[in-house]
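debug: dumping io for the single-chain case to check the tokenizer round-trip. Nothing else runs in this session.
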Amino acid sequence: ESRFPNQPVQIVAHSMGGLISFDAMRKHPDKYKPGGVFVGVPFQTGIQYLQDLHHGYYTELNRCRQFTPPDQFTFSSHWIFFPPDEESVGDLFVDVTNGGDSIQFKPDSSSIGKVDEDASFQPNAVNGENIKVDFHNVDDWEKLEIGIFDPRLDDSINEETKEEYKKHMEVQLQNARHWRENVLLKEIQDEEKLPDLVICATDTIPTVNQILRRRKIEDSDASLENRSTWEYDYISGRSVPGDGRIDYDKAFPEIDINIKKIALQSAHAKQMCWEESGGSLGHILTEVKSQLLSYKDEKRISFTKNSNVVSEKTDITADVTISG
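debug: decoded output
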């Protein structure tokens, strides 16, 4: 309001920016009456971010770890993406130690930022033992040796530092649960009058939404890489339609709200790029323009009904805020 006083604002938001913008719209619906176009937004939960927090984020060249687990654990946003309780995890996270050679397993291969054009959908879950974990419980992260609790990090994270991480996690996990319950899951109230939304999501790219784990074979080698009890596979589990990062059916709010669904074909990281670069920006901007024109038409109709004289020069405008 301080930047655009008394001016309606249309939102265009991508990924995490969409969640932040949706929160703003719920708090100030009158400000955002023109509506919002949301692209690749993880409105629902999944298991994909476990790879970031345990394996680290690599560049597409797979040579540089931009964000290692110790870095990722200092952030506040990741925790809202995880299933809210043990029951919700289900077969998203399974142990295949007893599956033998019949189960394909590629340990510690990252899928972040990569799109395999030859990959096919694997709609069936890999059979294994569901791992019981409440991702909102710090003790479960430590018990399962995930992320900063991985023994391979013991040389770089002492016990005192680990305790500080745990305190940080307890606060952030509690905040994440509260935020999701009160922003993403709380039903829209009549007085909110939230405008209709356009939600764009990709449904053409195999998106892995199941992580596999197996026990490492015991080795007399006590080197750093062999301290961990477990190894993980982020690419061989079930894959469903999505953008390579977010499942298509998880890109829409769970609550009852009027939305227009737009299917894209681009990868998550490319969605806001122009089509010649593999993105969908042209398609998205068409929806932005269409939504804004609809808003202007509605305002003109409303203005006409409440006015005896309407000038042909009447101009109804709205600012566009892009978040990503």
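debug: round-trip ok. Helices lie at 16-27, 49-54, 69-72, 86-89, 138-143, 159-184, 281-305.
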